[in-house]
Amino acid sequence: MGCSSCSTGKGGQPRGCKNNGTCGTDGCNKLTVFDWLSNMSLPAGQEPFDCVEVRFKNSRKEFFRDSGKISLSIGDVVATEAASGHDVGVVTLTGELVKVQMKRKKADWKDPALPRIYRKATQRDIDIWIGVREKEEEVKKRSRELAIALGLQMKISDIEFQGDGSKATFYYTAEERVDFRQLIKDMARAFNVRIEMRQIGFRQEASRLGGIGSCGRELCCSTWLTDFRSVNTSSARYQQLSLNPQKLAGQCGKLKCCLNYELDAYLDALSEFPKTDVKLFTAKGKAVCQKIDIFKGFLWYAYEDNGANWHKLTLEQVGDIIEKNKRNIKVDSLEEYASEIEEEDTKKVFENVVGQDSLTRFDQPKKKRKNKGRGKNAKKRVPRKTAKKKE
């Protein structure tokens, strides 16, 4: 999706609105929702739901009550109630789907303390809102200078001004607890606004900044991922990945969110395999599991006194040995059960499926030039006489 500001420019080059997902038309935002009930009319006698969903900067969404019965639609800019003054946001959802979203986020629509929508934003409200948004980069730069001057171990990643310009929220990241009381005094004196400091995680910072991941695509957190599930190293262990922090960490410095995408499939596949701590009892000794191949269904076992010599077994063979061990029956050795399956050839053979031989089939072959007699000490060649001398 793309709004009119994100269309192509001259020469087919992408123009881009340069708002990083906060454009006013709400067409290229990852938090954009589709109201699939917009074309359906309410039953007779039923009043429309009086709550709406409003989006602000930095992926912030809140629910407000439309007590004035204002006719609102998706994309309208509205002035909403705030702690002091008013804020300006964009309506992202109306109607019965708002009730579904409030149930999902465990918000009570019957709460009388739910903030209200004052009115549709006037031109003066929009001008003030745009004016304070344009000052955010300059204020962010100055606030970082103040934090560095105080020697605080923190990074101010983004700033969000309230719609009326009376309050500024500073989002920062830090490894440890930071005492920023003096910083708030300096910033309030420099910017003449009320200051609120809000700490965010490194994943939230990466979603705001954006970037390209190791897969070659845009970061999931900045395009479509809205909630951040906890990721730990056990997700990599279940998928039998090497615990290399340089490969498993994303641009935020934490474990990649995509480690959870296929985790459920691996857990379902591993449920058919015996646990790795189950030992096989044979006449030659105990054997422990060394490796599992989930896709091909193979397991490698080695004797405790000879860990360098691995024996390849199938899942059925291991299950047979375990069943015999449960009946106090020891097999003679793993060599009897060793799988003798020929390894498939891993070399990929090119298949001409579309009738094309190669990508360079239209290139002209280069002719070899004869370099005879071109050396440094080569004698000058005397041209042959093509005509006979006249007698």
Offer a quick outline of the entry.
This protein has 391 residues and is α+β, with helices and mostly antiparallel strands. It folds into four domains: 47-121, no CATH class; 130-200, K homology (KH) domain (GMP Synthetase, Chain A, domain 3), CATH 3.30.300.20; 207-269, no CATH class; 272-341, no CATH class.
Give a written overview of the molecule.
The chain is of the alpha+beta class and 391 residues long. The protein folds into four domains: 47-121, no CATH class; 130-200, 2-Layer Sandwich (GMP Synthetase, Chain A, domain 3); 207-269, no CATH class; 272-341, no CATH class. 23% of the residues lie in helices and 19% in strands. The protein has ten helices and twelve strands. Strands 2-1-4-3-5 form a five-stranded antiparallel beta sheet. α3 packs across α4 (181-191). The protein is elongated, with a radius of gyration of 34 Å.
Order of helices and strands: EEEEHEHHEEHEHHHHHEEEEH
Low confidence ranges: 342-347, 386-391
Number of helices in the DSSP assignment: 10
Going across the biggest sheet, name each strand in turn.
2-1-4-3-5
The percentage helix is: 10-25%
- What is the number of beta strands? 12
Strand content: 15-25%
Biggest sheet layout: 5 strands, antiparallel
Shape: elongated
Structural class assignment: alpha+beta
Write down the overall mean pLDDT.
81
